[in-house]
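Our platform keeps sequence and structure together, in a single record for each protein. This encoding replaces a full spatial description with a residue-level series of whole-number codes. We quote a single record here, exactly as it is kept in our systems:
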Amino acid sequence: MSNIYESAEATLGFISSPCLTKVELRVACRGIADRDALSKPDPCVVLKVQSHGQWFEVDRTEVIRSSSSPVFSKIFLVDYYFEEVQRLRFELHDISSGNNGLRDADFLGAMECTLGQVAQSPHFCFFQIVSQRKLTKALLKQGNTTGKSSIMVTAEELSGNDDYVELSFSARKLDDKDFFSKSDPFLEIFRINDDGTESLVHRTETVMNNLSPVWKSFKVSLNTLCSGDHDRELKCTVWDWDSNGKHDFIGEFQTTFKEMMRAEQEGKQIQWECINPKYQMKKKNYRNSGTVILNHCKTIKMYSFLDYIMGGCQIQFTVAIDFTASNGDPRNSCSLHYIHPYQPNEYLKALVAVGEICQDYDSDKMFPAFGFGALIPPDFKVGHWKPEPTCVAGIQGVVEAYQNCLPKIQLYGPTNIAPIIQKVASSASEEMHTKEAMEYFILLILTDGVITDMADTREAIVHASHLPMSVIIVGVGNADFTDMQILDGDDGILRSPKGEPVLRDIVQFVPFKDFKHASPAALAKSVLAEVPNQVVDYYNAKGIKPKCISDYESSRTFSP
């Protein structure tokens, strides 16, 4: 029998190319048609990138209720590769009220372009200060324009300062714009660009029926807030939200990040008068339309994935394989577990694709491996199969253990994955208590069908979202995996059966069948793309610095 591990590895053909720079993309739409005479759309834009001939979702904006010309506060961050044609697709959807998912949404149109088109400008010169570049195109639906609907994408290169600032605002005695209740205020912050245009930095949530609102704290990068220029002018505007989308202007004020930093440096609140220019001109005794207060300002040093890896953080990789009867008898060539002498099955392809990447970040390369849904000898009771020893050497060791166990076990059921998640979470919990960035856990689950313990799995994922771990689920075979998307959080925030939301998105689900006609290397890129950010988000949120970061920084050389 040929070496299946080498065959699968050769099939994948991993190719890596360095990212030249990172680009921020801002999105706005105009002229979206109303649903009917009485209601406007609730738009949301989904960004997709093309890889190996297929479109994959990267991120999506927030949903803006009742708006025909939305300006989204969500900013897409995209890696730019000079030597690649990076195709982008912006899809506009009308989201059903009370639901942020796409399942019941109406598709309103799309625009396709390349990142080079968005960034193309005589002024868009990498490694120098960049000016913005805007691309406006009509939205298309089934190849035809959708009335006067258009989308505008603004691109800007990151300045290199990736630190963040945490801000917390409140207001006091705002003007009342409603007759039968109090105003429903929200705050918008705009950055004033060099050419005088404005870029939306952040939009707070709406606080209903309250003239002295306290908005939730938020984090924003210094590049997004002020392009790294502490003296750059910022305009802050307060609105009274209306359900018809025609929000009432309350007032505005100007400031700079330098002024905001006084709250951090002096340990006190900073406040501004909220001014309505029309009232100021017309009303003789006008003072202000309320006061906006900065309660908290904290600059946060953001470390990169490389900082943590170079600081000694290890990726602890665990594999769990579905051994339920729905896979078919492994002795039958139609089985998903059939071992062909020359061609790896889908389980092996997925295992090698993901494992080959992860094992480079684990110094001992000893991986725990489990199987679920099988009858285990000698008494053939349902349990979790594991090799002896439980940890095997490298991905090739996992492959060999998988091949060796198939003749010994009996495929059965059910497809319960919560116990596996809980087992890895137990190890991650021990790491969390060390309060050091030494081990981050990745669990790869390979399954051929929809899981049967969805409630317990949701509970386990919500618990795991507080821990240093990520979960990757690859659906093998041709089953309908629609219900699995709920675990990915793509159709809204995942919640436990008790209603508790995940602290952060840690699950990535991908059906392997989407990659059958693409290079298998695309699978690894798709399922692992979010992991570096998940690692960084966890440790930065906990305020955990990379270990030995000072030694790492002193060893780096900087070009002039």
In short: Confidence is low (pLDDT under 50) at residues 1-16, 121-132, 549-560. The radius of gyration is 26 Å.
